[in-house]
Specification:
This protein is mainly α and about 300 residues long. The chain contains eight helices and seven strands.
């Protein structure tokens, strides 16, 4: 009887321990799942299912080493991914820093720039430097004129766009006595010049634009007005014309404008506004870029 009772007690203890083991095993899996859900740095992810399977086989097929191996693998994968992210973020910060330096430099240029200028090719820049060295007075068309007060804003935009497309906007006005002196045979320089052939009896650009008095080049308002009278508003009178709708012709080339442009260069107020608009845009872009860098 004692042997039988001992055997029964042993069997009950074994069953109790087996149940306790099963409960402990399930609690372990539940705790690991809860830990994985709440952890933000190390996620078991695809390793959770194999880990749970090995836990179910713990003591018979698997042991501690098999269970811990899943966490070790997940840790190494996470560590590798974090290292890759660190390199990526570091590279992005470098690129953003370079972009910031470029925007900062451009912003300083606009702040220090007295007057905005149209984009110019290097050959044109070199030619104007040469004209200054020779002491030949000259002024770009857009600096020599301004719109008449009664010209609507939309017409101003179309007209400036047309003049730019025609090559007139940044072309130079020089006094007639220097006409033969400006055409240098020096290699690597080039430019455009406006030659007066005023049409006194025709509707001309002088009805929309006027000479700016007291220009730095000292070119007379009368001469500039003759340049304006050279470009007519009526296509039936001359081969060079432009109208208020932005339709133009220069020689055998005829075209029209988009109509979306706003005046940026003709008129001191337009140039001032264009400069301030660029400064504001660059400052806003710089602020957003700094916020992006700080958030990384």
């Amino acid at each position: 009887d004692e042997a039988r009772k001992s055997k029964e007690n042993t069997a009950k203890s074994l069953e109790r321990y087996e149940n306790l083991f099963l409960e402990t095993r399930e609690e372990y899996i539940e705790k690991v799942c809860k830990w994985d859900a709440g952890n933000t740095l190390l996620k078991l992810g695809k390793h959770m299912q194999p880990l749970a399977r090995d836990v179910q086989q713990y003591g018979r097929v698997t042991g501690y080493n098999e269970l811990s191996a899943h966490a070790h693998i997940a840790f190494r994968e996470t560590e590798s991914m974090m290292e890759q992210n660190r390199h990526r973020v570091a590279n992005e910060i470098v690129k953003l820093g370079e972009k910031k330096a470029g925007i900062t430099a451009e912003l300083e240029q606009w702040k220090n720039r007295k007057e905005p200028e149209p984009a110019r090719e290097e050959k044109v820049v070199k030619n104007r430097e040469l004209l200054r060295e020779k002491g030949i007075p000259h002024i770009p068309f857009y600096m020599a004129v301004d719109f008449n007060n009664n010209v609507p804003e939309q017409v101003r935009g179309r007209l400036e766009e047309a003049l730019q497309d025609m090559g007139v906007l940044d072309a130079l006005i020089v006094p007639p006595q220097y006409r033969n002196s400006v055409f240098s045979e020096v290699a690597g320089i080039a430019d455009r010049y406006l030659i007066q052939e005023p049409q006194f009896m025709a509707h001309a650009l002088s009805e929309l634009l006027k000479p700016v008095s007291g220009n730095e080049a000292g070119i007379s308002g009368e001469f500039i007005d003759n340049i304006l009278k050279t470009i007519v508003l009526d296509p039936n009178i001359a081969k060079t014309y432009v109208d208020e709708n932005g339709h133009y012709r220069i020689g055998l080339i005829e075209g029209n404008v988009s109509g979306h442009a706003v005046p940026r260069f003709i008129g001191a107020e337009a140039r001032k506004q264009f400069r301030l608009d660029n400064i504001r845009c660059l400052e806003a872009e710089l602020t957003l870029l700094e916020q992006e860098i700080d958030g990384m």
